[in-house]
Amino acid sequence: xxxxxxxxxxxxxxxxxxxxxxxxxxxxxxxxxxxxxxxxxxxxxxxxxxxxxxxxxxxxxxxxxxxxxxxxxxxxxxxxxxxxxxxxxxxxxxxxxxxxxxxxxxxxxxxxxxxxxxxxxxxxxxxxxxxxxxxxxxxxxxxxxxxxxxxxxxxxxxxxxxxxxxxxxxxxxxxxxxxxxxxxxxxxxxxxxxxxxxxxxxxxxxxxxxxxxxxxxxxxxxxxxxxxxxxxxxxxxxxxxxxxxxxxxxxxxxxxxxxxxxxxxxxxxxxxxxxxxxxxxxxxxxxxxxxxxxxxxxxxxxxxxxxxxxxxxxxxxxxxxxxxxxxxxxxxxxxxxxxxxxxxxxxxxxxxxxxxxxxxxxxxxxxxxxxxxxxxxxxxxxxxxxxxxxx
Length: 391
What we know:
This protein has 391 residues and is of the alpha/beta class. The protein is 39% helix and 17% strand.
């Protein structure tokens, strides 16, 4: 019997300022599609409709609408930046489709027309600051790409630092994709913060780390760079010294030593070769396709409403472990990990949450309690303070 074909849109920028992230995501999605299409037990094949918005704001909604109206795609897997997600969502909602968003973001959003498989602040920024503040200090210098992600993560970070008795030394933004970062390095050298929180994206992040390494060469005691969105991708092309010593939080690193990830990497090695390093962008897009396919099979239809009911009612095995989707917020429960980058461009994981953390996109539960910053340190006690982040 001929298998039914289900068209699915893949909407990632594989050219432009953050092209490397998009290429990884497309590779991960296609790896999952290949597995689905090779599995005779699944009564359908996925036919990908791949579009490249090239990182240009005006392209996203038009391409999403065309995929839905002209190609019959009921599911759009894609977008990386928050502005592209927000540009696409109205078209998704208008046509009754479903967006699968799998990148870390700033929270403060929930749509019936989206499944959020990327981490939100209580799954990336809060665990990161719980580690960093008591060990490195409470005077961050914040740098970010000049759009929603940079603004909002900076805002939440400022609240955390100030509530913990610290202060933001400086808060600077550069245009998305800009590699002109020398002024940031000069200001960091002048103001001597305790650490740098980088909310830079794509080429901007790589350029900043290269320039910062020159400062570390002059000042060996320069503070660490920490981030919620720094992956192995941004370390590519850097010298071994520029790659190492950065702290990042993520639900996935290539070095994650779990049974699920070992099995996943073994399968991917057969397809891509044993030298293929996997990244959170690759894995998150893979998860999107894999979960979607299993939900369509269970629902016996690709109708978004039926798929959404299945997705929010069961556990799914994934490379990061079992994943559940909250039926109220449509966000994934994810297990945060914190890693330190090494000279090979990998992350050595030194802390993992005991288990998956339920997403709290509006920080209602997470910020109603004191942030665990280790009780006391050189800056004094932190217990009893609560955050007042509002939107």
